Amino acid sequence: MAAYVYAGAAGWVGAPKGIPTRGLFRAGAGDDRWDSLTSGLPEAVEVRALTVRPAAPNVVYAGTQAGPYVSEDAGGSWRALPLPGSNRVVWSILLHPSEPGTLYVGTEGTGIYRSRDHGASWRELAVPAPEGMLRMDFPARVVRLALDPSNPDEIYAGLEVGGVVRSTDGGDSWQSCNAGLLAFAKQDRFKSRIGTDSDSEGMLDSHALTLSPARAGEVVLANRMGLFRSADRGRNWADMQVGRHSPLTYARDVRVSRHDVNTLYAALSVAAISDAGSLYRSRDLGASWQRFDHDVSIESTLMIAAEGATDPDLIYCAARRGQVFGTVDGGKTWRASRLPGGVQGIYALAAA
After folding, report:
1. In terms of Cα–Cα distance, which of 158, 153, 255, 159 is closest to 211?
2. pLDDT band at 255 (very low <50, low <70, confident <90, very high)
3. Percent of the chain having pLDDT more than 90?
4. Residue 98 domain flag
């Protein structure tokens, strides 16, 4: 089947008035033409999460303001996977690697739901607010879910602005991983406050996390203050000092390659709303980093990166104000395009 790239947009705090900030779009890999996907989706859809099933790339999941949706025809049509209750703004989706029927979604607040039957029914998991969790001028949200490939019952959730929580029993119970993050916030260079009166705000402003099969129990976290690593399942954290390699250190995304367990990609920028971004790659799990994008101009905060589900040479990234950048030859050449209609507010990206 053809290789596709999917991009989802939604509004954000501080978005300029009058610009369009909604929609779900699809383009062929290496193509600059984006099509709007609407069949079966909510009207004026906002999309903050996208996931492709690696073993079946035509199966795509989208997190919307009305809950999770699934397409089984590469985005041509969609159907809802209704969540119980009213807290249905989905920010993250996680597929179990060896149980095709098991999936998790993270929502506004500290909401995490689990399905064992492909999304036909859901159980809301009890996730207590972790130590230090803060209240901003937007609802807290579960912005990323990830599991340890060596032990899929070990699941991590990144909370904005609430740090990290961990489950070791498939989501039945959860514990805070914030003690080490809060310790960093006592140092002047890791203090940051924008919407609260707490200096720990920056360290708890989680954006993404990831784990590699190469190192069981090791978590890499992207937050406002940079990239951080825990070698002991979130008990303690160390600064990865990405600033030694990049002038930009605000970290919005970090991902382990699907095709090389030692490769990481990181989306780095100046701040949540800025006029610069960059995609960096590490071939040694974060010991060193090199800028990966080139010959393109990233003009706003780089929000997310995505690697092809089956093709290691297919790598895309996207910036907040509607730019999408991609390579189909492993980084040798890059193309830039914009979402149609001037749509901004990219949160989600996936490649099949």
Report:
1. 255
2. very high
3. 96
4. yes
